[in-house]
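By way of example, we now present a protein record of this kind:
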Amino acid sequence: MVCKSFVNNLPLLTYQNVIDIEDFVYLYQTNQSREIFPYWKFDKFDFECWDDTECHKELRFRKSDIPKLLNCLGIPDKIICCQRTSCSGLEGLCILLKRLAYPCRYTDMVSRFGRNPTEICLIFNQMISLVFNAHYHWLESFEQPFLSPENLGRYADSTHAHGALLQNCFGFIDGTVRRITRPNQNQRTMYNGYKRIMR
């Protein structure tokens, strides 16, 4: 990529016969700015306009849970990115949750947040760093208060009460469906109806 001052001087360089017209056209076209996504057509972020159903669908949290999560994660009132883009902590958290709730592109989030996709990307990255730096210590060891034998028993009881067959399962690594060979017994237990496979 040629520096901007050089591109601005292309007409002068052509006039002085440093470059010919074909070079001018090539250099000018290859160094034009990319087309800007029309983010200004959308309303700015306004959490009050979201209803509970929208929050749950888009962020996987109820609207009333978002302020609690903001407090628990220790999100500051204002987020400032490396190149000075800023937003409220509430908007930053919603951008983080929206991006993590379901795979989507930053351009897909423009209509919800009314921001340039680049800004959304910067805010998301800043939020990931902020949450990780404040809470990574919870992942460094199994010696955590929330993993006490009493709590693990409560988690397992709750999981079983919600329909799990195992009585000693207290958590799940992720929701990835893993294919297994069709068993001779308990086929209904293993079949989840999703993608018509055994898991």
Summary: The beta strands are 78-80, 86-88. The mean pLDDT is 84.
